[in-house]
Amino acid sequence: MRTIGLSLALAALVSTGPIAAAETSDPSARIDAYAREFIGTGIAPSVSIAITRDGQVVYAKAFGDRSIDPKLPAGPNTAYDGASLMKQFTAAALALLATQGKIDTQARLSRYLPQIPHAGEVTIAQLYGMTSGYQDIGEGADDATVPLATRITRVAARPLLFRPGTRWNYSNTNYELIGLLVEHVSGVPYATFMKTQIVKPLQLQNWAILGAGTPPADRATSYFFPTPIRGYPEPAGKTNLLGASGDILIDVRDMAAWDEALLAHRVVSAAMWRIMTTPGTLRNGSSTGYGAGEYVTEFRGHRLIWHGGNHLGSTAENWILPNDRMSITVLCNGGLTAVPKLIRAIGALYIPQNGGATPKAAPSPQPPPAMQSQALAWLQRALDGREMAADVGGDFAAMGRKYGPARHAKSLVLDDRGTVQIAAFSVELMGKPYTYYYDATKKTGIALLPVWNP
Prior knowledge:
The protein has 454 residues and is an alpha+beta fold. 28% of the residues lie in helices and 21% in strands.
């Protein structure tokens, strides 16, 4: 079989039952139980977890198989596709060059890359802060036969979504442009700069860029589980579609080392770390909640710096709790998984709930009728063989303006004759994830996957 799809940062959570998040005197034993339950859902072959406290790795384990056929066990040194975890590394590369006085982050992009469309309208800070207005390279620009720089320029030439600095919009194009900027200013390829300036100094053993050099031998194969069917994996067939925004291979031990280096200011200066972890501000004075390659928020009243990563066959999330001198990383080789739920459950073992007992989760709201209609319409087009012509971006942009930030992803699993076997349409709206799917093997019609609330 082959898989066709586009995956964005979604948190579609599927399970046979909830994971309880309660404090315990033995966090390791409870984390082991969480991980086994996670694997037991059948939604991912393996999961790896690492935790640091006060500069020390206190937990580093893997559960399940990094490969199903042949069957190979995962370990804490297994490298996974970390997807958008790459953005914090790209932000650090920019910070290094800024510290050296080679880049002015308040300058317009045209100072360095005048050939890029709209470069005279957008500052470097608006790129890393996701307020530039550039459309997403992930939207219809995934032809790996075209050089990456060409694809970036093509997407950048599209009309800006808004006046720079007036809105926040997650767009991989911003970090692809930063990657081109790093290459231009440093005079070496992006991969070379990262290896010499970050990877080797920190002795990251399994850090690699997809499609650039030899991947780690202990690498997890990515699998797509679009429906809750045990034992129905589909190799994701991930190719080098993105560079500086989302093409990282890394293991949990390397992420732990990276987190500690950030906290100790061994990668970027204290001043640049403050910039990376300070939310941007729009022209109207409102906060974006996003720094540079990192979201900035709170967990149970404790400051939390985090980022996730999602590709068709992988899910990743990394937390840094700077005031607690703690970090958590969860990597898995299954798409549309409950990694966000799992990492919150782990965090709850270490961070006490303010005010005592953990409150009960509110029930998931029903998706708006407009969203449901769009999902069903796309799935029908997919079944009719017209899926590649479907364009729902404008519809979801309109829903986003009405209901709040909206994101979507489409995925297909085809048999050798090109017949649709599984079609999945995922959307995150108002912070709640939903996945509609059609499974030809079950013949039960279009269904909505169940969702866990943290």
